[in-house]
Design brief:
single chain; alpha/beta; Rossmann fold; 3-stranded mixed sheet; 12 strands; globular; NAD(P)_dehydrat-like; NAD-dependent epimerase/dehydratase family protein
Length: 371
């Protein structure tokens, strides 16, 4: 049970894993960018369950129906989100999107895993973030919470991984082996902080740096991280490379965003968001040991490092993983724990809940939906 006492809170909110009880609605309108995405969808659900009025952006209004259906599937009653069209690559629509909002949670961003070589990730990430911030400051929004990534707080050299990175650490964008994704997230977040420092307005900024985001799905479309579990279950991964991930459950990530949005002490802070580190081999073993016949296609075969390096020469997914071979970066999430009382689920729970929801929804290729 968590008890929250915030200047913005008008009720005692009880949270028990998977159960939200609101005795009275909150005041405030929150804009969630990228509502059709994995994190964006869960963010909408979390905010609505906490009693906020939610507005969300989509690039195409045709996505409204699927987002509404997903939100409704999570037992959210009453008015759902309202929708507006805005794209990170253009100015149009952002002023209207933020108008009248108290808070902005900026989730939308290009992912980068598996993108063709030469794909521009920096432009949409940095310029899109600045568009959102500019509109928010102009509209007098109280706080913007930007979703960054642990990829923006990587230790400079492999030998430094024995010491956990924290909010004071920034990825060296010119470092050897730094991926385009890590570079884009780092430069986008730096640009956000510089913009806020120069704006001299009332709008405050907080950034959240999550690891690999797992947990249950609620839509037919799935994210790249969730897709890793789906591919393992479908037998689409013939051998396991020597790579691993710092994992955070999407439900815990939503809670952290909301607390960072509300807490006065969160202004100006970078919060790292991760639970446990799991090697991809650990994830495969979890699936085999807990899902019975549903995990019959999950391989235990290991992929030699040199094969991954060769494959990376012509395959985008492999190229993304090369810099991760054998690396186990450590991250210090104590700030989120001490300032916001944030305590995430174990990574194993996030992975297994993800797998079970994929199976139930029929999102594993070659598997029928569970009854």
């Amino acid at each position: 049970m968590w008890r929250r006492n915030s200047a913005h809170t008008i009720e005692v909110h009880l949270f028990i894993r998977g159960l939200d009880v609101n005795t009275e609605a909150k005041e405030g309108v929150v804009l969630v960018t990228g509502g059709s995405g994995y994190v964006g969808g869960w963010m909408i659900v979390g905010l609505l369950k906490r009693g906020f009025k939610v507005r969300t952006t989509v690039r195409d209004i045709a996505r409204e129906a699927s987002v509404r259906a997903a939100v409704t599937s999570q037992g959210v009653s009453g008015d759902g989100p309202t929708f507006c069209v805005a794209d990170l690559s253009a100015d149009k629509g952002w002023a209207d999107a933020v108008s009248g909002c108290d808070f902005v949670v900026h989730v939308a961003s290009p992912m980068g895993e598996g993108e063709p070589k030469g794909t521009d990730l920096l432009g949409p990430a940095r310029d899109g973030t600045l568009r959102v911030l500019s509109a928010a400051v102009e509209a007098g929004v109280k706080r913007v919470v930007v979703t960054s990534s642990l990829a923006a707080a990587l230790p400079a050299r492999p030998g430094e991984e024995a010491v956990a990175s924290d909010g004071a650490v920034w990825t060296d964008v010119n470092g050897k082996g730094v991926s385009d994704y890590a570079r884009s997230k780092t430069l986008a977040e730096r640009a956000a902080w510089e913009f806020i420092q120069q704006s001299n307005g009332a709008t405050t900024l907080t950034t959240i740096l999550p690891g690999m985001i797992m947990g249950p799905v609620m839509k037919r479309s799935i994210s790249g991280s969730v897709g890793v579990v789906a591919r393992l279950l479908a037998g689409k991964v013939p051998a396991i490379p020597n790579v691993g991930f710092n994992i955070v459950d999407v439900r815990d990530l939503v809670e952290l965003h909301i607390e960072a949005m509300l807490a006065p002490q969160a202004a100006g802070q970078r919060f790292l968001a991760s639970s446990d580190f799991l090697w991809l081999g650990d994830i495969a073993r979890l699936l085999r040991e807990n899902l019975g016949d549903h995990a019959a296609k999950v391989t235990s075969r290991r992929l030699p490092d040199f094969i991954l390096r060769i494959t990376a020469l012509f395959q985008a997914d492999a190229r993304f993983m090369v810099s991760m071979i054998g690396r186990r970066p450590r991250f210090n999430t104590a700030l989120a724990s001490t300032l916001l009382d944030w305590h995430p689920r174990p990574a194993s729970v996030a992975v297994l809940d993800c797998a079970r929801s994929l199976l139930k929804a029929g999102l594993v290729p070659g598997s029928a939906p569970e009854s």
